[in-house]
UniProtKB/TrEMBL annotation:
<dbReference type="GO" id="GO:0000287">
    <property type="term" value="F:magnesium ion binding"/>
</dbReference>
<dbReference type="GO" id="GO:0030170">
    <property type="term" value="F:pyridoxal phosphate binding"/>
</dbReference>
<keyword id="KW-0456">Lyase</keyword>
<dbReference type="GO" id="GO:0030378">
    <property type="term" value="F:serine racemase activity"/>
</dbReference>
<keyword id="KW-0663">Pyridoxal phosphate</keyword>
<dbReference type="InterPro" id="IPR001926">
    <property type="entry name" value="TrpB-like_PALP"/>
</dbReference>
<protein>
    <submittedName>
        <fullName>Pyridoxal-phosphate dependent enzyme</fullName>
    </submittedName>
</protein>
<comment type="similarity">
    <text>Belongs to the serine/threonine dehydratase family.</text>
</comment>
<dbReference type="GO" id="GO:0005524">
    <property type="term" value="F:ATP binding"/>
</dbReference>
<dbReference type="GO" id="GO:0070179">
    <property type="term" value="P:D-serine biosynthetic process"/>
</dbReference>
<dbReference type="GO" id="GO:0003941">
    <property type="term" value="F:L-serine ammonia-lyase activity"/>
</dbReference>
<feature type="domain" description="Tryptophan synthase beta chain-like PALP">
    <location>
        <begin position="13"/>
        <end position="301"/>
    </location>
</feature>
<dbReference type="GO" id="GO:0018114">
    <property type="term" value="F:threonine racemase activity"/>
</dbReference>
<dbReference type="InterPro" id="IPR036052">
    <property type="entry name" value="TrpB-like_PALP_sf"/>
</dbReference>
<dbReference type="Pfam" id="PF00291">
    <property type="entry name" value="PALP"/>
</dbReference>
Length: 312
């Protein structure tokens, strides 16, 4: 992976995304003993970092592939991201969503022009439905996190953070499917100056932590976490990147996630989703480790269902 490839990715997608702001807080610095820089992907188009990877994947298609469209399976942010990216580039988007996906997310996909196919809420049903669309329409399948073009698009988050603050000691990112932390690890390796990448993960969905321990991709048998965007598992494309370039993963309890989210709402005056709070929760849990360090924290998105959000 070289600088030019990442710079080309950034140049390619920049007309279609926001270079999101970086917030700081003296109070949160004092609370943690570190100098914190919050990269606010909650202000990204469609409300999450996933717009970056989605747009990069669509832009890499040939003219013929664009005409046939793209397909993915997702219950949330990537469904919205691919729909919007495809709409912006006049490409049909076929989105497989579980039949129990929140109405607010289905409405957003439809609003962005995505064509929804409902399926049973399990991975086999999702993959089967997507495969049928690929066969019928000739559409290109784009995985939400285990796709190199998606990972490279996601890497631009870390690039922007390091461009603004080149002397970061660490970047902390949430871990779900692995697409964000893999991209962050690549950008940190290429553009950072001995900048470590650390993951934050819910204890009750700690497949990535266990995968690094065992050296193989592990699965979750329980995913009952408020951080609904982090319930998926790693893939065979992003896992080797994570193994090579991610320093370690910190697991956090549900109450710690909620407390971190509450603090960020209160102190930064921004709306973030629970998955975004996991990285900050990891810093709060391990203050001694981060003490006196310059730490970038990726706030991955802000797509909150306000009907179900809870702070206790």
């Amino acid at each position: 992976m070289d600088k030019q490839m990442l710079r080309d990715t950034s140049r390619r997608i920049s007309p279609y995304i926001h270079n999101t702001p970086i917030f700081t807080s003296h109070l949160l610095d004092d609370m943690t003993g570190a100098k914190l820089f919050f990269k606010c992907e909650n202000f990204q188009k469609m409300g999450a970092f996933k717009m970056r990877g989605a747009v990069n994947a669509v832009l890499q298609l040939t003219k013929e592939e664009r005409e046939r469209g793209v397909v993915t399976h997702s219950s949330g942010n990537f469904a919205q991201a691919l729909s919007l990216a495809a709409k912006n580039l006049d490409v049909p988007a076929y989105i497989v969503m579980p039949n129990n996906a929140p109405k607010v997310k289905k409405d957003a996909v439809v609003g962005y022009g995505g064509i929804i196919t409902a399926c049973e809420p399990n991975i086999n049903a999702r993959e089967e439905a997507a495969a049928k669309i690929v066969a019928k329409k000739g559409a290109t399948f784009v995985h939400p996190s285990n796709d190199l073009n998606v990972i490279l698009g996601n890497a631009t988050v870390g690039m922007e953070l390091l461009n603004a603050h080149p002397n970061l000691d660490m970047i902390v990112a949430p871990v779900g499917g692995g697409g964000l932390i893999a991209g962050t690890a690549l950008s940190s390796h290429v553009f950072g100056k001995n900048c470590k990448v650390i993951g934050g993960e819910p204890l009750v969905a700690d497949d990535a932590y266990r995968s690094l321990e065992s050296g193989q991709i592990e699965t979750n048998y329980s995913t009952n976490t408020v951080a609904d965007g982090l319930r998926t598992q790693l893939g065979d494309i992003n896992f080797p990147i994570i193994q090579q370039y991610v320093d370690h993963i910190i697991r956090v309890e549900e109450v710690e996630i909620i407390q971190a989210m509450k603090l960020l709402w209160e102190r930064l005056k921004i709306v973030i989703e629970p998955s975004s709070a996991v990285a900050f929760a990891a810093v709060l849990k391990n203050k001694d480790y981060f003490k006196d360090k310059r730490v970038g924290i990726i706030l991955s998105g802000g797509n909150v269902d306000l009907e179900t959000i809870r702070f206790s």
